[in-house]
């Protein structure tokens, strides 16, 4: 589950990580109130208006703007809220902005120049340990830094039992070239950041930029936080932060029905039992000249009710030109699945407007094929993998 920048910052702040302070607003009048309140709380006279969408690169796309007066706050907020923001990380049509974060300006002039760093916390799957990845080159695309100047990216791995040790936090601050008060601040920042990561069962923290202000404070200007869905049951307070507007409506509906569904761009819908078979079915569709429209694992119980729900969800995608049902009957018997497909088909009537290729293999596959062939419905049966692919190719041609 992804959090918005403002939610991520609140989470960090609750663990003692210093953040650029801000207040979220969903219209321009509330934005002005937020700016006034921030002025009182922080003494700021300038603000940044930041579009809240689940995508980075907002600065480049015009979703982060500096406001030097309350009038600026009002006009900028009004123009950003409701816009379709296009960034390198959004779909081509962009994402709709429902709210903005009004944040204090933290790039104020002072004794030193503000400096931007990069920092993320994530699991290194190769070693099975959490790591902190950080760089002096903050504020820009970390992929570009990795490409052009890989020696400027450092990593520090944590022992799962000991956690982040004091010497490691110091090393990070030193490698970032810090001294004096900024060094102390960075040690505190990294330490509380890592605690927040572990305690909230996050799978990714990406803070880009981490800022050293002109008066040597270290704070999070941005936050990308991804939480582990499988651990949300023990974080009820975080689970409610989920913003369904940011997710594919079809995926939300499928998940509510207990189906593992991922929306894709292609033209062949597929319904499969088992994630591994679903992956190879997608390969098969590609090899037969189609493009998968989705990943869908219906799980072990492919009864009529479930098959019907799956059909309805697949058909919501208007790009779908054919559906491939690929079920291996191990625990579930193929004839039961075939009956499920037939019942669902009959029940749905005209709602089914594309050819359906059904490949059933395993227990009672033969009985299943007979059921399908004798159903009088427009179902194309297959038993072999390649045969199914050829039949998909034929209906697409
Ligand atoms: P992203 O583009 O989606 O990653 O959004 P960020 O939150 O990282 O903001 C983009 C850029 O806006 C930052 O790299 C900063 O250069 C700039 N920015 C953010 N906060 C401030 C601020 O308080 N003052 C000024 N002047 N610029 C800011
Ligand atoms: Mn950023």
Could you explain how this protein is built, in words?
- With 397 residues, the chain is of the alpha+beta class.
- The chain has three domains: 18-105, ATP-grasp fold, A domain (Dna Ligase, domain 1); 108-245, D-amino Acid Aminotransferase, Chain A, domain 1 (2-Layer Sandwich); 247-396, Rossmann fold, CATH 3.40.50.261.
- Helix content is 38%, strand content 24%.
- The chain has helices spanning 5-14, 28-42, 58-61, 70-80, 142-148, 166-175, 180-199, 236-239, 249-256, 275-287, 304-315, 334-348, 365-373, 385-396; strands spanning 22-25, 47-51, 64-67, 84-85, 95-96, 100-104, 115-124, 129-135, 153-157, 202-212, 218-220, 224-227, 260-263, 268-272, 294-297, 322-329, 356-362, 379-382.
- α6 packs across α7.
- It is elongated and about 85 Å long.
- It starts with a helix and ends with a helix.
- Bound molecules: guanosine-5'-diphosphate (GDP) and manganese (II) ion.
- Residues 48, 50, 56-59, 64, 66, 103, 105-107, 139, 208-209, 221-222 line the site of guanosine-5'-diphosphate.
């Amino acid at each position: 589950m992804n959090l918005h920048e403002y939610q991520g910052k609140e989470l960090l702040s609750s663990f003692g990580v210093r953040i650029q302070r801000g207040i979220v607003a969903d219209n321009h009048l509330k934005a002005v109130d937020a700016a006034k309140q921030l002025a009182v709380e922080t003494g700021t006279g300038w603000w940044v208006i930041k579009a809240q969408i689940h995508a980075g690169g907002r600065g480049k796309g015009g979703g982060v703007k500096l406001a030097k007066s309350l009038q600026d706050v009002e006009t900028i907020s009004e123009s950003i809220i409701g816009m379709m923001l296009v960034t390198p990380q959004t779909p081509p049509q962009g994402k709709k902005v429902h709210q903005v974060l009004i944040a204090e300006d933290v790039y104020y002039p002072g004794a030193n120049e503000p400096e931007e760093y990069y920092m993320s916390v994530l699991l290194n799957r190769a070693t099975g340990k959490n790591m902190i990845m950080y760089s002096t080159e903050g504020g820009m695309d970390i992929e570009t830094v990795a490409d052009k100047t890989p020696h400027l990216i450092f990593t520090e791995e944590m022992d799962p039992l000991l956690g982040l040790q004091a010497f490691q936090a110091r090393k990070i601050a030193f490698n970032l070239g810090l001294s004096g008060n900024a060094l102390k601040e960075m040690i505190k920042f990294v330490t509380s950041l890592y605690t927040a990561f572990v305690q909230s069962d996050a799978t990714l923290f990406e803070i880009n930029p981490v800022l050293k202000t002109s008066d040597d404070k270290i704070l999070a200007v941005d936050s990308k936080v991804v939480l582990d869905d499988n651990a949300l049951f023990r974080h009820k307070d975080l689970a409610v932060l989920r913003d369904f507007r940011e997710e594919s409506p079809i995926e939300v509906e499928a998940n509510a029905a207990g189906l593992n569904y991922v929306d894709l761009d292609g033209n062949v819908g597929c319904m499969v039992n088992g994630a591994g078979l679903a992956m190879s079915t997608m390969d098969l569709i590609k090899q037969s000249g189609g493009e998968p429209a989705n990943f869908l694992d219906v799980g072990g119980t492919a009864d009529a009710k479930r098959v019907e729900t799956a059909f309805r969800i697949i058909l919501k995608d208007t790009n779908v030109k054919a559906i491939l049902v690929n079920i291996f009957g191990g625990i579930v018997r193929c004839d039961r699945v075939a009956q499920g497909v037939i019942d669902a088909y009959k029940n749905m009537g005209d709602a089914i407007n594309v050819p359906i290729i059904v490949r059933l293999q395993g227990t009672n596959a033969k009985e299943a094929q007979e059921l399908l062939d004798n159903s009088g419905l427009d179902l194309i049966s297959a038993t072999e993998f390649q045969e199914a692919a050829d039949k998909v190719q034929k209906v697409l041609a």
